[in-house]
Amino acid sequence: xxxxxxxxxxxxxxxxxxxxxxxxxxxxxxxxxxxxxxxxxxxxxxxxxxxxxxxxxxxxxxxxxxxxxxxxxxxxxxxxxxxxxxxxxxxxxxxxxxxxxxxxxxxxxxxxxxxxxxxxxxxxxxxxxxxxxxxxxxxxxxxxxxxxxxxxxxxxxxxxxxxxxxxxxxxxxxxxxxxxxxxxxxxxxxxxxxxxxxxxxxxxxxxxxxxxxxxxxxxxxxxxxxxxxxxxxxxxxxxxxxxxxxxxxxxxxxxxxxxxxxxxxxxxxxxxxxxxxxxxxxxxxxxxxxxxxxxxxxxxxxxxxxxxxxxxxxxxxxxxxxxxxxxxxxxxxxxxxxxxxxx
Length: 343
Fold this sequence. Notes:
Blueprint: H1 5-11, E1 15-20, H2 31-44, E2 49-52, H3 56-67, E3 72-77, H4 82-90, E4 94-98, H5 102-116, E5 119-120, H6 128-133, H7 135-145, E6 163-167, H8 172-187, E7 195-201, H9 206-213, H10 238-246, E8 251-255, H11 257-271, H12 277-291, E9 300-305, H13 313-320, H14 330-342
Parallel strand pairs: 1-9, 2-3, 2-5, 3-4, 6-7, 6-9, 7-8
Helix pairs in contact: 2-3, 3-4, 7-8, 8-10, 9-10, 11-12, 11-13
């Protein structure tokens, strides 16, 4: 994990870590679930694995399936970022872009899997996805203890964070983390459960709304946010996401698209971390929680980043702004520098 000293100092925090899953093979957290699902598909002899995706889950499945010579079908909204669609295609999956939402793609893949005998990977539908996603919780505790890479039958008690911030769309990541931390607690390997904080975009906040109202029922929304990876009308794992926060003493909050873009800028310019909008949402949530006094500056805090900024270059350009175009002369360079200094 990364120790972002400058970001921590800016926020007045003593113990802050960032776990950047944008460094995974297909550049997102979704590799964890897809690796397990493809292994399961091979075990049961599935002819085809199918998933609905806004891009990351599909890219992860396509990449893992290619490595295992497993046929895969990906159904995504046609609004998915081009970089993510390119990943789907380059890994050799059959890709279908639908004139509709992620939720409609989800329903189509479930229907197709039942009609055609395919094995469905969908988040919140296939239980093996949570088994893959919980591995992040195991790694967080292992790495906080300084035992990364150790291979021991019975470890010394590991260190658990006090708080973990994670972006939430379907809810399967936060529920997978909850399962992983619970497994470690039940084994006696960690002393307590960390508080899990789910962060949603204001334009896609079905789980937050249920949490804020004290309801155990998730009401669909019309999702609209630049953070495409967490743009979901009806979170398919929303109830378990609610339980993940409630049972750990955590909470949910929302952040605006403007705050997400600012989080992308801060992660990049201050610490050299290139995060896509959905990933930066978790850091934007931490910034808001600090502002509201919802975390103690002395707590061990982990922010989970779920995807690389290269997944959505258009959003990155919105966050960073345009480059300055000049003539190839020293005079033009000096003039441009002077203009910037005057701003």
